[in-house]
Amino acid sequence: MKTRWLIIKPPDMQEKVFIGLSARVCGKSPEDAQICVLLTGKKEKVDIPYPEGVRVSVHSDPVFTSHDISLMGASLEKRIREREPDVILFPATEEGKQIAAWLAGRMGIGLTADLTDFYMDENGILHQIRMAYGASLQAEIVTCAGRIQMATIKMEREKADIVVAGGLGAGKEGFALLEELARLLGGKLGASRAAVDAGLAPFSCQIGQSGNYVNPKIYFAFGISGAVQHLAGMKGSGKIVAVNTDERALIFDYADYKICHDAADTARMMLACLKDARADGLC
Ligand SMILES: Cc1cc2nc3c(=O)[nH]c(=O)nc-3n(C[C@H](O)[C@H](O)[C@H](O)COP(=O)(O)OP(=O)(O)OC[C@H]3O[C@@H](n4cnc5c(N)ncnc54)[C@H](O)[C@@H]3O)c2cc1C
C-alpha cells in the first residue's frame, strides 16, 4: 500500500521555497502518494511547477492570515482527520514548528523537530534523522506508537559566501549596521537565538541548533558568546571572525580572527573602510 504523505506549507513560507521540500520527498519516495497542502488565507491559483507525481491541494481559510496558531491548527486538524495521512511533514519555519507542536498536543501524535534528513523503510516506517547534544551526535528516531508520523524539517538557508551575524551584544544600533555590512559584502544577515528573542532580527535569520545551519566561506560573529547551540549551526564555516568585548568569550576559541572590541563600533569602522575602498575603486 502506498504511504500517504501530507507535506504542509505554512503561511510564513514562500511557495517557491517550499517546492524544494516536495522535491526532496518525491526524490525519496517516488512511488508514494504525496500531497502538498498549501495553507493560505484566500483562494489562490497554483502556478509553480511541482515535481511530477506531487498533488497540490490548496487549503484556504481566512484564519491563515491571522497568525493565530490555535485557529490555524484547528482548521488543519479537520483536514488531517479527513485525509488520514501516514506521514505529515512541515518545514521548520516559525509557524510550521508552532502549528506542528499544537497538532501534536491536540491529536496525541508524536513529533520530531528539526530533521536534517529522513528516509522511509519497506515497512512504512519513517526514519527521522536529527542532530542531538549540540550537534555532536546524529540521532535516528522512529515513531513507535500511533500511525501518523509527524516531523518538522530544517530547510537549508539560501547559500551565502559571507554571513554577518549578530548576538545580544550587538544591540539595536549594531544590528542596523550589520544589515548594511551584510548587504555591502553581498552576504546574508544571521543572528543568535537571544538576538531573535529580543526582537533584533527575524527568526528566519537564526543560526544554530533550532535555526539554520550555514557554512559560508566567512562567518562574522558580532556580540555572540558562542553557546554550543549557536556553534552547532556555524562551526563548519571556512573562516570565523569574532568580535566581542569579553576576551574570555567562548566564541574566541573557535575564531580564526579575534577582535576584542565593541560590536557596533567595529561594524561602523568596517563600513567606513569598505566604503572608502569602494570609492577608491579597490573593491
Ligand atoms: C534547546 C535550545 C536550543 C537553542 N538553539 C539556539 C540556536 O539555534 N541558536 C542560538 O544562537 N542559540 C540557541 N540557543 C540559546 C543559546 O544557548 C544561547 O542562549 C544563545 O546562543 C546566546 O545568544 P548570544 O550569544 O547572542 O547572547 P549572550 O550569551 O547573552 O552573549 C552576548 C555576548 O555579547 C558580548 N557583548 C556584550 N556587549 C557587547 C558589545 N557592546 N560589543 C561586543 N560584544 C558584546 C558578551 O560578552 C557576550 O559574549 C538554544 C538553547 C536551547 C536550550
TrEMBL record:
Molecular function as annotated in GO: electron transfer activity; flavin adenine dinucleotide binding
A Pfam cross-reference name: ETF_alpha
Species, as recorded: Candidatus Eisenbergiella merdipullorum
Flavoprotein as UniProt keyword: yes
Cofactor(s) needed: FAD
Protein name: Electron transfer flavoprotein subunit alpha/FixB family protein
Cofactor comment text: Binds 1 FAD per dimer.
Keywords: FAD, Flavoprotein
Every Electron transfer flavoprotein alpha subunit C-terminal domain range: 158-235
